[in-house]
Amino acid sequence: MRNHAPFKRRPVSLTALIDVVFLLLLFFMLTSTFSSFGEIELNRSGGAQAEADQPLQRAFVQLGANEVALNGAPVDLPSIAEQIDEGLVLVSLQENVTSQRLVDLLAALRGRRDLTVLVLE
Questions:
Q1: Which of 20, 37, 65, 107 could join 96 in a cystine, given CB atoms 3.0 to 4.6 angstroms apart?
Q2: Model confidence over 58-78: pLDDT tens digits?
Q3: Residue 119 gets which letter from DSSP?
Q4: Can you give the pLDDT at residue 71?
Q5: Model pLDDT, residue 26
Q6: Among the listed residues 64, 118, 70, the one whose alpha carbon sits nearest the alpha carbon of residue 90
Q7: Distances in Å between the alpha carbon of 104 and those of 20, 110, 119?
Q8: Which of the four pLDDT bands, split at 50, 70 and 90, describes residue 49?
């Protein structure tokens, strides 16, 4: 037996679609992380101008893979910020230095507002 009733097209219900979109939105919002990454500010060389009244104090840091030297003397990386007074810090990188090692040095010097750090090429 066949049903000979005419085929009626029902209107599409958007309720199910809205529910699925809402569940997807909720899922992605709960699984996403909104943490901000730390930023390290780098200055370009050539912008450090000393005032005519005060000479600019300079510190020279040689950064290696396992060692750090401040003005030629070996120092400890966590305590390097306390050993530099104020002024300009020039950082020279050896060939085998990783970027994480440079970021560790910049993070150690970041808390000091009276320092200007320039990374040499």
A1: 65
A2: 888 888 888 888 888 888 888
A3: E
A4: 87
A5: 93
A6: 118
A7: 46, 10, 13
A8: low
CA–centroid distance for 36 within its chain: 9
Phi, psi of 14 (to 5 degrees): -90, 0
Query: Is the Cβ–Cβ distance between 78 and 72 less than 8 Å?
Result: no
Q: Which of 108, 100, 41 is nearest to 81 (CA)?
A: 108
Both tokens of residue 35?
A: 């943490």
| Paired tokens of 86 | 């104020």
End-to-end CA distance of the chain: 87
Amino acid letter for position 82: E
Q: Who contacts 80 (Cβ-Cβ below 8 Å, separation ≥6)?
A: 61, 68, 70, 105, 108, 109
Distance between CA atoms of residues 45 and 117, nearest Å:
9
Q: Please report the DSSP string for 39-101 in residue order.
A: ----BPTT-----SSSPPPEEEEEE-SS-EEETTEEE-STTHHHH--SEEEEEEE-TT--HHH
pLDDT for position 79? 80
